[in-house]
Write a structure and sequence with these properties.
By secondary structure, the chain is mainly β. The longest helix is centred in the first third of the chain and has 4 residues.
């Protein structure tokens, strides 16, 4: 029920991050989003260990996640990597171990090695 002219039916204010009035391409799920750059960000969904630092630079679209591993060496640390921020793909750099990227589910799974205690994952646009 939200419009740019009249706001929404609840309080007549237009404070939403989505508006049909802004939608230019019906086949694009992100069309109509007005603040997606600051809302749709990469983040850690599940960490095998203790998170130490997570950052996202909106202008450069660079993401970094650092954590100290726990005892579960076979599990993966799982990150959400939104295609909205990386429409042309992304490059991953890891301190050690290996990763699997699944752009269809917007998921990055990272398997750390036992050679280090602290692990860093970096993502940037291609």
């Amino acid at each position: 029920d939200n419009t740019n002219e009249h706001g929404d039916l609840w309080n007549d204010e237009d404070l939403s991050i989505y508006s049909n009035d802004q939608r230019k391409n019906p086949s694009d799920i992100n069309s109509g989003g007005r603040a997606l750059e600051s809302v749709v960000r990469p983040y850690a969904r599940a960490t095998v260990g203790l998170p130490l630092r997570m950052s996202f630079d909106v202008r450069r679209r660079t993401f970094a996640f650092e954590f100290r591993h726990g005892t579960a060496l076979t599990a993966a640390t799982e990150l959400f990597i939104p295609s909205y921020q990386y429409p042309n793909g992304y490059k991953v750099t890891v301190s050690d171990g290996r990763y699997e990227a699944d752009p269809e589910t917007q998921t990055l799974r990272y398997y750390h090695s036992t050679e280090r205690e602290t692990h860093v994952i970096r993502v940037r646009p291609v």
